[in-house]
Amino acid sequence: MSEKDCLLYSIDKMEKILKEKAEKEIEDKKRALRESSNSLLSASADATLDTLDAHCDYGWLQTYTGRKVQPFNLKESDIDIIDIAHQLSCIARFLGATE
Questions:
Q1: 52 vs 99, which has greater pLDDT?
Q2: Distance (Å, rounded) from C-alpha 20 to C-alpha 75?
Q3: pTM of the predicted protein model
Q4: What pLDDT, on a 0 to 100 scale, did the predictor assign at position 65?
Q5: How many domains does the structure of the chain reveal?
Q6: How far, CA to CA in Å, does 65 sit from each of 1, 32, 82, 99?
Q7: What is the CA 73 to chain-centroid distance, rounded?
Q8: Whole domain around residue 65: which residue ranges?
């Protein structure tokens, strides 16, 4: 092997080692951050979701009977048999083989 080839091999090897070391350090820092803030994040996330549920209007649908319903925040009072029956009557059945 020539001197140039040896140098190129050494450089490639060093780059690989440095890259692996940097990736490992980044992963270690991420893991430490997750572990140290895990309880804080979960408590904060729960509080944020509760706030969003209470104050956000995710989007809503107007039902056949005229009620405003939030599909991602359904309540038992949002469900009406008339709305269900109307929606089921709009679904094509039997692949269009019947009239």
A1: 99
A2: 52
A3: 0.38
A4: 92
A5: 2
A6: 84, 53, 7, 26
A7: 17
A8: 61-99
Answer yes or no: do 30 and 69 share one domain.
no
- Read off the pLDDT of residues 13-25 as tens digits, 9 standing for 90 and up: 888 888 888 888 8
Six-digit token string for 3: 């001197």
> Tens digits of per-residue pLDDT, 24-57?
888 888 777 777 766 555 656 655 655 555 555 5
Q: HEC string of the chain?
A: CCHHHHHHHHHHHHHHHHHHHHHHHHHHHHHHHHHHHHHHHHHHHHHHHHHHHHHCCCCCEECCCCCEECCCCCCHHHCCHHHHHHHHHCCCCHHHCCC
Q: Are residues 10 and 48 in the same domain?
A: yes
Q: CA 97 to CA 99: how far, in whole Å?
A: 7
Residues 29 and 70 in one domain: no
